[in-house]
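WARN retry 2 of 3 for item q-0093 after timeout on previous attempt; input resubmitted unchanged.
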Amino acid sequence: MRPILRYFLQSAKIATAGGAISLGSFFIYTQNAEFTSIAESDPIFKLVEGKGWNPHRNPTTHDFYVRRVALSDIRPGLRDSPAELARAFCAGVWSEWGILSQYFSLVVVRALLRQGRNDSNRNQLWTIEDMLSSEYSEGTMIADSFEVLEKKDGRIVLRGGDSPSNKALRPFDVVFELSAVIQKHEKAVDFGFKSVFFTGDKLTGQPPMPGFAVWLHLQYAKLLLETGILNTMVRRE
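OK item q-0093 returned
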């Protein structure tokens, strides 16, 4: 199976039927996500370099979406803690993963979950309840697809693209950063969803994804940002 296809199938493992929305409402729902550039000195690039995961220095596909939310819309227990905000945000991302549920029925998703879960990974996060309650400490593994690398300063960094059991260089690798920054003067929170994709196991000189896959990723990155934020907000009738 091609690495890029494997990645999208991994994503489907933790899709939920409740996250599906119509195509038209999707663009309205995600219109407030702001695309932001990533500086070459960004810690996410330094992490990849420090781990030696892209030794051939292949081109990366990277993006960073930010969404500002008023503090008054955030649940009171989270308003003073970037760490708790980031944890709740991360829990919302994984437990309410929704973009691919537009294409996979609940029956297919359940079949993928049954196929992926076994005795060697049974202690990972698999259920919605576990994903909502997890602290996302370093080393936490999600549905045999993602692993928490770092958790500090209102940031949670994860690696994906293959099973966490594969510690070697990967034909398709990705590092995500989920962040929550409290802007006290603006009385707001800036939530961030940052991604860096690359080929690690060989020299290619090419970006890791074709154009259609980049476009698809950008769409669900925005949706994951929004669904993650929902888990931090005051629930209104």
